[in-house]
Amino acid sequence: xxxxQHQSKDESMAHGSSNNSPTQPFEPLTMNESKRVPNLRWFxxxxxxxxxxxxxxxxxxxxxxxxxxxxxxxxxxxxxxAECMKYCNGSYxxxxxxxxxxxxxxxxxxxxxxxxYMLEAVFWGALISSPIGGRIGELLGPRRSVSLCLIAISVxxxxxxxxxxxxYWVAFVIRLVQGIGQGIVMxxxxxxxxxxxxxxxxxxxxxxxxxxxxxxxxxxxPFVGLLISNESANNWPSIFYxxxxxxxxxxxxxxxxVYDFPETHPYLSKEELDxxxxxxxxxxxxxxxxxxxxxxxxxxxxxxxxVSFTYGWLISxxxxxxxxxxxxxxxxxxxxxxxxxxxxxILSLIISLTAxxxxxxxxxxxxxxxxxxxxxxxxxxxxSGSIGILxxxxxxxxxxxxxxxxxxxxxxxxxxxAGPGTSHLDISPSYAGTLAGIYNLFFNLSAxxxxxxxxxxxxxxPTQQKWFTFFRLTSGLNIIGLILFIIMGSAxxxxxxxxxxxxxxxFATPLNLDFNYQANMxxxxxxxxN
Length: 530
Known about the structure:
Layout: H1 2-14, H2 40-69, H3 77-88, H4 93-97, H5 112-140, H6 142-166, H7 168-196, H8 202-229, H9 237-257, H10 270-278, H11 292-296, H12 299-330, H13 334-365, H14 370-392, H15 399-413, H16 423-427, H17 432-457, H18 464-488, H19 513-529
Helix pairs in contact: 2-3, 2-7, 2-8, 2-9, 3-12, 5-6, 5-7, 5-17, 6-7, 6-9, 7-8, 7-17, 8-13, 12-13, 12-15, 12-17, 12-18, 13-15, 14-15, 14-18
């Protein structure tokens, strides 16, 4: 009976058109409706979150593990503490310093320069692949591209520990290739968001995926610290084995749950498929040629990439440099430093998810344009982050006040995720992965430049004034990025994107419902037939 009603609906929708009536919507597989999974799109989004979580754990875990990897028998307790501050943000130093040379069954003899290069290798790899990583996901399909990268990252992580013990450069190449994989995985996840999320769930979906980074930074240091301090964990090599198993497990669930398109998923209900197709900006069908000239000269894209650079600078400062400021200028203990370094990430996680939900709700229930909402969130996020960092330099604050300002600056700056951080999905649903890859390129590039700027401005003899000069630079850069986004930013699909419509309708209405439904489904069928 339901099938007859559905066919009747299709016939009535085609009535009045030419004799060649539109084909019926794509039916993924024939199976009982009882086997369909309700709200499957959110399972897909959560799996994207877990993928980003797992690859971020691979990247972040080495910063703490490297302290246990290197010979410690010749180091004093002060040297060990200084090394942990440099490479792992002061987290769990007490655990590391208690490890004796006898308990370290394996160790490497790397110089300070070699350790720096090893930690940067994954970022250089991401710089290599980020510009094309999103496009690979769009053409190959995020299901396959992410799966292949997860397998490669997992296997290489299993090989890293023995490689590090045998040859430095072999281990370096392993980290470099893992970075290349990460540069493909991250933008490919936003291809999933573009295809699976509706317009009025887009911001929250993006926030859920990106929160994988914050979650990884909250979890990884306690996890690694406990493994290193556990005598039965076979010391530091076991860290890489456990993380490899995590990535392999995520791969298995990813491949089982995630499909490239909602239209091809065997467990997606007909009702949810219709709901997604009717309420997303993305139009099925991938253009084989990216309009690079129009894309890179588009003012909204320029504004989006400027914010990616300045926001990346701010986030990298809080992640990698603020702990050194805490120790060198504020004189905070290592134990307190490790805890305080987690606070900005915890607040960021809460704010990003809350802002994502609130932004989508405002879009559904008010007449505020999406462009104005994105700019307001940029103002609140980048503005508060810049002012908070700048205020540190303006008054003689006590330690608690400075820590509070840093935490609030990082936390509220995360409003950027619900603002400019969703622009790749707004302005170009068809090339969301491509834009996210370029975003990742600028983000990582800013992190590398920021680290070298700290080395130049603060140097080997840090003072409060040197740090304050760097903070003013950080604040100024983010204000520039904010101004550019307010002037040139947009949340409208751009004319050079295949999903562009001259009179775009953000959400389904009684007047455009039938048209959008047939347009989405027929385009998908035509693409697959070709």
